[in-house]
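[Automated response] Your request has been received and processed.

Submitted sequence:
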Amino acid sequence: MCIRGILAFAIASTPFLPISVRGQGDTLAIEIASARAMLTHQRAKGALGLAPEMAGALQAPGVASHLRDPARTAQLARAIGAVIRPYSEVTTCGSGKRCPLQGVAAHLALSAPSIANDTATVTSTITQNSGFTRQPREYETILLTLVRRSSGWAVVKEVQLGIS
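Generated structure:
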């Protein structure tokens, strides 16, 4: 058995390791930590939608390039109390028209994580109902930097990339 296989077996069979390390994998743990950080930016109260689509690493979430693994999407949605909804399903009023999100109060989209050693970055956009007729939806896009700690992945820096 190679070193990587031995390490994977040791991590998977060690019960005292945090859940973010044991059994879920770095990608899911990073996505959960990122999504939870973005929930602090949610002002619209009500249901949260989670996009199953995701942009490539270091790309804006509005440019979806592929679907996240369905099982991982379901785990992420459960972890943050969201329903899985493509952005196209919650914005049904047509191109160029101004309308609130349909069926959810806010919608979250994440890029694929970019992971280098014990540091990861994720670009995330939260779109939410504003409560105003003139601009019924608003968005905020943030670049999140996470580091691996003994307790799991944690967001250590947020850079606002765009806001309406």
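Summary generated for your ticket: The two ends are 53 Å apart (CA to CA). The chain is about 25% helix and 30% strand.
If you did not submit this request, please reply to this message.
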